Amino acid sequence: MTAVDYTVIVVYLAGMLALGWWGMRRTSSTSDFLVAGRRLGPLMYSGTMAAIVLGGASTIGGVGLGYQYGLSGAWMVIAIGLGLLALSVFFSARIARLKVYTVSQMLDLRYGGSSGLISGIVMWAYTLMLAVTSTIAYATIFDVIFGLDRVVAIVLGGAIVVCYSTLGGMWSITLTDMVQFVVKTVGVLLLLLPIAVVKAGGFDAMKAELPHGYFSPMGIGGQTVFTYVLIYSFGMLIGQDIWQRVFTARDDRVARLGGTAAGTYCLAYAVAGAVIGTAARVLYPKLGAPDDAFATIVKDALPVGVKGLVLAAALSAVMSTSSGALIACATVANNDIWARMRGRTLRTAGASHDEIGGNRVFILIMGVAVIGISVVLNDVVEALTVAYNMLVGGLLMPILGGLLWKRGTGAGALASVGVGGLTVIALMGWKGILANEPIYFGLLASLVAYVAVSLATKPTDAAILDVWRRRLAGEPATPTSETTSPATAGA
């Protein structure tokens, strides 16, 4: 590292704080703070969506998987891209038209206010652990850059994200994510990828040096690919951090086309990471751990200045996911858990006073909690697996069922969340956190419970379904429906 590299990184970090201040000046309502006023156009929407889904796991972890398995190491990030494409093409327009702030509010709107609190707790746990795993990644990056102690690195990186997120909420995060998207694209796709391939001697030399399995599209194993799709592709469909970005779209078309562009970008990013990892395997065949591949190739293979930019790109990847998970965690904690426990809703609270201050306090509280947990937690992979298993096993069926099956009921949704979540927890305790069985059988149990209980209970009230259909169609609900339907309490 040279003075030029350090300067690039320090300027980048200072720029993030400056954008946080600028975002605060653009924030004048709850809608501005939580969903950027629902007015992002296609360019900013697609850039920020790609930024949040491609975090440290996709960058450092994606290169590590390429180092370990070759080109098939791209499958984890490919699964993320496929999930984002499915969300954008099939569901994003309807989700955007609901004009809610959280996934739990969508469930209340669909089922009549019967499952919001428990689903909010599950979603809060998922977003909290997602923010923690992103924050832990600062230790690796700041150790490479400054040689900082693990705790100091986590506190420094986490404090910067908490600061700009607290200042301006989603507007600050949107502005910083757009810059992070550009830095990530230049640093990883336009600089590190071609330099790594050239340093490794080109694709012909890489094929001659490595076993044939490194260039097989399924070298990582079919079961692993299937599990990635179940966890990450379906996780993209229902995560609060992803939905909250969908809510920022200006209209249906932006949500659909911008999200499709972001999903396509993810596929390219997946291949790039795997290729970089494969090149690192040629250059450094005896690394201690696959996840060291990214930092090693950046330190040894890149020229002055470029090294700083690529490390800034790694910081961009981690910060974008961390900030998105943090505001999602705080939004759920405040509006789906705390407000409900106090007998309030986002709509009734917003009718009497500005909620920006309350949401800002919750971001600060959740940010301090995330930093504290990150300091004492070491196993990132297990934490992320627990988060995604709980999310997908507990909430996938009630959410997709609510969007696709009109016979689904609130009782069925509650049963699905409970049975699926408990099955996942029990099997993780029995088979191990990293086993495949928890997500397989958790999803099956959740599906059976949702369908069986929905069919065995009274159909959802017609007034509730009427409000739901109108919102899905982008129409205003009738006055009668709004006063008689409990679903609108969480809207």
SSE inventory with pairings:
Elements: H1 3-25, H2 30-35, H3 42-53, H4 56-69, H5 75-97, H6 103-111, H7 116-146, H8 150-199, H9 202-209, H10 222-238, H11 240-246, H12 252-283, H13 293-301, H14 306-341, H15 346-352, H16 356-376, H17 380-404, H18 410-431, H19 437-456, H20 462-472, H21 479-484
Helix pairs in contact: 1-8, 1-14, 3-8, 3-11, 3-12, 3-14, 4-12, 4-14, 5-10, 5-12, 6-7, 6-17, 7-8, 7-14, 7-16, 7-17, 8-12, 8-14, 8-16, 10-17, 11-14, 12-13, 14-16, 17-18, 17-19, 18-19
Structural summary, described in words:
- This protein is mainly alpha-helical and 491 residues long.
- Helix content is 79%, strand content 0%.
- It has helices at residues 3-25, 30-35, 42-53, 56-69, 75-97, 103-111, 116-146, 150-199, 202-209, 222-238, 240-246, 252-283, 293-301, 306-341, 346-352, 356-376, 380-404, 410-431, 437-456, 462-472, 479-484.
- Helix 4 packs across helix 12 (252-283).
- The protein is globular, with a radius of gyration of 22 Å.
